Amino acid sequence: MEAFETYQTPLSSRYASKEMAHLFSAANRFHTWRKLWLNLAIAEKQLGLPIPALAIEEMKQHLHLTPEQFDIAAVEEKKRRHDVMAHVHTFGQVAPAAAGIIHLGATSCYVTDNADLIFLREGLGYLIRSLAVLISRLSTFAAQYKDLPTLGFTHFQPAQLTTVGKRATLWIQELLWDLRNLKRARDDIGFRGVKGTTGTQASFLALLDGDHDKVEELDALVTKLSGFGYAYPVTSQTYSRKIDADVLAPLASLGATAHKIANDIRLLANLKEIEEPFESTQIGSSAMAYKRNPMRSERVCSLARHLMVLHQNTLMTSSVQWFERTLDDSANRRITLPEAFLTADIVLSTLQNISEGLVVYPKVIARRISQELPFMATENVIMAIVKKSGDRQEAHEKIRVLSHEAAHQVKHLGLENDLIDRIRGDAYFDPIKEDLDSLLNPASFIGRAPEQVDNFLQKWVKPALEDKELQDAISKSVKVELSV
Fold it and tell me: For the Adenylosuccinate lyase C-terminal domain, which residue ranges apply (predicted)?
């Protein structure tokens, strides 16, 4: 019952994947701190500092915290009012040979900031792989429906025909840009390294007897041991909070893409042309039993707005950092960074679930086309008359009159569009009446939509997903099952 009596964020308790929720968990955070302390000790020993081999071995054996160690750390933090020092002492209790050298020469941000950079990079990896799977799913959908004509909309008013698959490519193209942006952000992340209390490395220079080369080598060694290709050349006590803003910018942009896709699906659901998955036992409304609300797409829109707004926190935090450090970033970042990644994770998994069960209703789509196509086909009818030696201006006037009569039937009487019947009943159009069916074939109004889908998937999507990391993610992916 205790879990139900304390507030829990729905991001982790209700929606997020286990992998992303674990990445920002306390267990993984403090495990990562211990690995960073181990890497520092290994590098310092390699450069000649008197660190016992037993200290290194004990640290390696206790990288993961037990429940008892979490309890000890909680007591230590309450006493010391300092989370890092609480964990230094807790680690020292299980690795006594290392108790005197854990955190040697380091400041708290050695573990807190370097760990955050690790989490940002790994979190981007999760999102990149999830995004690749989503793009793959939507690409299959686009290919399947590349030839199915559908009414296009501009200003949400009937416009020239497109195809269901072509419309999906508009979604995919934005997701490809998001994939590019996320990969750029991940590739750009460096390591804070070992820089000391204000970034001058003074403590390490003292430890290494004034040897500047060894200080630089220590920074490089710890950076390499921690899996990074480079460390930021200069830092203050913290890494620049501008990096957080740069990382969350593509996440916010992804949120905009996701909102647009989900909103399109919500509008199509209203038109009954396309629906998101709906289980046989699912309830759309507690009062209206017949309803099939697009709740998954609505969830995406809801969370996507939250994702877009979170980026503002990082911008404001970056802008108000004083000189070499101020602590008013800490509480904000503890909330903002995990929430951004958990939210993006949920948005992508929900979109994948939607994409894996999209239901298309071709007859509804065809009926809507039949209501609008006669008006759109009038130019083709006029051109056909002209080709049969008719007068363009006279044909235009005939069509104008008949179109207004048909529009009156639709708008004022609520009847079907009978423009074609009116054309068939007018002797003026006798020369082209045998051609009316071909002139009204929806497939003749979709331009190069099918070819554009094929070219886009082959020339843009396929190359974007061809690297091994993404191919492995796609091949190992399974259908997403939402818990709620």
Answer: 373-457
